[in-house]
Amino acid sequence: NTLPKVTIFGTGGTIAGEAKTKTDVTGYKSGEIAVSTLIEAVPSIVDVANVDGVQIVNTSSANITSEILLQMAKKANELLKKDVSGIIITHGTDTTEETAFFMDLVNQTNKPIVVVGAMRPATAISADGPMNLLNAVKLAASEDSVGRGAMILLNDYIGSAYYTTKTNAISLDTFKARDQGFLGAFADGVAHFYFEPAKATGKPNFDVSKVDKLPRVDIVYGYQDMKVDQINALIDAGAKGLVIAGSGNGSIPTAVKDKVTELNKEGFPVVLSTRTGGGFVTHKDYAIGSGTLNPQKSRIMLMLALTQTKELSEIEKFYSTDK
Ligand SMILES: NC(=O)C[C@H](N)C(=O)O
């Protein structure tokens, strides 16, 4: 038929989660139900698009690896370059923003990639997954979605993958972009956008078609009395770059700053982000400031940046919001 083609990558998460009782919304197993079953549970999807399901993995989103990200990037680009109008990734919400951000940066087309999940398992009363999935199909199939980058969709709200983050451990209303706001919302089963299509300022694009492996990048949490031991241990373990979730505008204790300064002189990339959940980390003369990116997105950016350059001054540009 003439409906747009949409491919759904199933990766697991609560949207595919199964609990022992209908009222259990925390003690359940993520990634139990196949993507084909999720699609069958929403019969009206067939009125919106020609849908195809691909089971990539079926697991909790904490188990998504950079190998899985690369696999999805290659498959998504292959399909989007053909006649598929949009890709949906059903995903656990805990690391949704990492996958969505990665897919946003590696998409070689202007077609939509929509990452969707749920906060209540499929077996719960008032499960949010089926409606979220139907909305995701509408979003991925819509011409209005073209040129908007990857998007995160949950609880009727459409957020840009670049800026949206999970802000609450259990609430249905968890995804937010506090400073930048949502792109739009569903009303009466229809996606309404608040703006014309736009690209996040300074957003780079990475072609990973020839990348076999992403470099290891780790995150270290900052706190009072933080020591340099974790930094040393991670470098010994093979980290090719580090992100520090500093306090405030990326601040770290003096001893850690001395270590970071030393690493900077050696050309080892350290990105300073913030544990505050918002704002902007400015560039320092001893480390790269993460700009608007939180620690987990800064990590994804650094892995991708390192596939292109080892130069700190070049890496720094990927965190810039300048045009
Ligand atoms: N709401 C969720 O999807 C959480 C789940 N633990 C996950 O796989 O990320």
TrEMBL record:
Top-level taxonomic group: Bacteria
GO molecular function, a single term: asparaginase activity
Domain (Asparaginase/glutaminase C-terminal) ranges: 216-317
One Pfam family cited in the UniProt record for this chain: Asparaginase
EC number(s) per entry: 3.5.1.1
Keywords: Hydrolase, Signal
UniProt-annotated catalytic positions: T14
Location of the L-asparaginase N-terminal domain: 5-196
InterPro entries: AsnASE_II, Asp/glu_Ase-like_sf, Asparaginase/glutaminase-like, Asparaginase/glutaminase_AS1, Asparaginase_C, L-asparaginase_C, L-asparaginase_N, L-asparaginase_N_sf
Family, similarity comment: Belongs to the asparaginase 1 family.
Protein name: Type II asparaginase
